[in-house]
Amino acid sequence: MLKYVNTGIVFQEIPDEVTLAINISNCPCRCPGCHSQYLWEDIGMPLDTTAIDDFVERFGTDITCIAFMGGDADPREVNMLAQYIHEEHPQFHVAWYSGRLRISPLINQTDFDYIKVGPYLRHLGPLSKPTTNQRLFRKAKDGTFEDITSVFWKKH
Q: What is the pLDDT of residue 156?
């Protein structure tokens, strides 16, 4: 069972979206230098369709996207929740931030509008650095995914 610890409305995680970020616990990635080590523990409230409906009721008029921050311990469950959002709350885009190197073969990518992959490696930097190993992909109209990581890099 997925559990979440907290949520926040964020503006920089997904370009051009006002995103409800759901911080999921029990992270198996344990990236060195992680800024959210408290998410390594199996703590929090159940993250299920009831929780999603509650988030939509509380934040629905303020957001355009719902992002799962983690969930690598159970990618199938993340996928199920993404499907649920698209079916029951189609006005929202769905994003998944995974700490894995590759998109899990256990999910159906087309159930997501955005997928970020890659562990945080301090010496390579975050998405905002051109040296980052992390990548953010956006689903195109034809269903393929395009790498849009470069939108995070400041132009000089």
A: 45
